[in-house]
Amino acid sequence: MARSHSHAVRVLAGWLALLSLCFGPASAQVTPRQVVWEEPVYGQPAPSMGSFVAELRGQVRRIVAAGHLAPLWYAGGIIDPWGSTAWGNPGEVVWALSDALPYLDPPLRARTAAYLEHEMARYPPWQSAETPALEGRRRTSYRPVFWRYTDNYLVKLPERRPWMWPRNDGDLAADPPRAGGFSGLPENLYALYLYARNTGRWSLLAEHWQQIARTGTGLRPKSAGELAGLIAYARIARRLGHGAEAGEAGQRAEAALRGAESWASFTRSAGGIVDRHDHVIRFPGLYNLTPEVGRFLARSARPEISRALSPVLENPLWYLTREHGGYGENHFLGPDFTWALFQTRAYVFGDRDLESKVDLPWVELGDLYYLQKLVALMRTHSPVTWRVPPMGAKGSAPSMGRQQRAGLPPRAPRSSVAED
After folding, report:
1. Which member of 29, 67, 370, 415 lies 3.0 to 4.6 Å from 387 by CB, making a disulfide possible if both were Cys?
2. Residue 284's CB: how many other CB atoms inside 10 A?
3. Which of 419, 319, 305 lies closest to 43, judged by CA?
4. E-assigned strand segments in 153-192
5. Rounded to 5 degrees, what are φ and ψ at 213?
6. Alpha-carbon separation of residue 221 from 4, 36, 215, 267, 321 (angstroms)
7. Side-chain half-sphere CA neighbours of 276 within 13 A
8. In this model, does residue 19 exceed pLDDT 90?
9. Is the dihedral of CA 374, 46, 305, 418 positive or negative?
10. Which of helix, strand or coil describes residue 234?
11. Per-residue pLDDT tens over the stretch 307-351
């Protein structure tokens, strides 16, 4: 009998281990309320991350020394025959560098914060998700070519044919192209939240609260990045003392999370988990992942996302910079390809063996996705505690009962679960 009982225990333990591998790194349930209000507090990365910390600092140091960088223009083939852009949204550099701040040495941290202050004064991320396509130092050694008479969003001319005439300097001067990226104003809310949280400059957000609220009010997320933006808006409002706005936004974010049981359905209007047609492959529902949204997806949608990505991840070289991947008549895939997959494996799947998957920067200078991959990698080798931060001081803080009715977390927060 004892031997039979011992065997049953071993079998049960084996099944539990298998389930852990299939359904995520942690089994504890996380409520929508926790996802909205609890912030991750990461400890020091493991000593084995030392070379990656140094690499991150070196990349940031080059960006700060270079000044404002022009958006990236690239054309991979039929996936984007007239060219695509990345990092044209001014919020993207705010997001990437603000996320990197805790890993920088104090002098570099101060220079980076000043750099971001200057960038936001010139290109306000609360106001626009685009910047001039040709303004700033190039990230590559080649000069971009913009085509006439196309439906590319960089070109405002209505004609579409012939579509292979390059625009000359006169065209560009008369009608300067603008560039965006794989994010918009909703995602910029999370970038601003990161900046204020890691610099303490909440006063900058208070100065531009009306424009921030214009984006956050009524936001109905349909992707990971937009969900992160709504969560950030609730936190910004709470920190600045706008209790009613924070409560309403928090309730809206919680409702969105409750409605995201199927991530494919939740993100369908944005393009779904994988947007695969003709020569195109994108991951619109997974762009701009954050630790908070990843924490939610790891417990609610990991099997679904794993199934959706399995045909892509079957390629053992999915992580290579400018990998072709066999997707149509293209000579390489854009920087969003490995970025989205890497962030998903770090924040949703909880992989802890991604050191060899970082690969090289996509461009010679200013690869913001490379910075985000380095930060995500270090976080997979850092302890994390989830906690609710303090409220702001605007007005009189509501009582516990009033906060709960408004959808706000308790004013005196306690640390939540700690994860290795």
Report:
1. 415
2. 22
3. 419
4. 178-179
5. -65, -30
6. 52, 13, 12, 9, 30
7. 11
8. no
9. negative
10. helix
11. 999 999 998 999 999 877 666 677 778 899 999 999 999 999 999
